[in-house]
Amino acid sequence: MDLSVMPDEVWVHDQARLVAAATEAGTTDAIAVEFDGTRAELVILTTRGARSGRYRQTPVIRVEHEGRYAAVASKGGAPSNPAWYYNLLAHPDVEIWDGTERRPYRARPTTEAERQEWWDRAVRAWPSYDDYRSKTDRTIPVLLLEPAG
Predict the structure, then answer these.
(1) How many whole angstroms separate alpha carbon 5 and alpha carbon 148?
(2) Which DSSP string corresponds to 112-138?
(3) Whether residue 13 has pLDDT greater than 80
(4) Residues 3-147, CATH architecture
(5) What CA–CA distance (Å, rounded) separates 23 from 7?
(6) Host H or E run for residue 67
(7) pLDDT tens string 30-39
(8) For the chain, how big is the Rg over CA atoms in Å?
(9) Distance between first and last Cα of the chain
(10) How many H-runs (helices) and E-runs (strands) does the chain carry?
(11) Whole-angstrom distance, CA of residue 123 vs CA of residue 27
């Protein structure tokens, strides 16, 4: 399946299904994605809408290192960034739900020096990111989420 051409309404439906499964189980350990023999854990990112101000929950691939996380705005290699990317830029204070823990984080774009290190971690967690990169002309943003407070 080519995720880069998936309609937005399909993305929204799939994300809602994953959030509902995690909510019912009380943990993000109950959700994961699998593709082409690779399985990846997910965390749920709660952002505030850039325009609406409403809170949104989005499952993303779990890319964690020493208490910090990366959010890779790949959208499967689509030509545009996912909506949550703009939410993070407008409202960088977010919540990450990982396992049974929910904690506040602050998002920021990675620096050039950080980006490759975090990209490599992301590809280890989800090798398809390299495929997504080859499908698009845009540089896929990588945001760093650091503990708040």
Answers:
(1) 35
(2) HHHHHHHHHHHHHH-THHHHHHHH-SS
(3) no
(4) Roll (2.30)
(5) 25
(6) none
(7) 999 888 788 9
(8) 14
(9) 40
(10) 4, 8
(11) 24
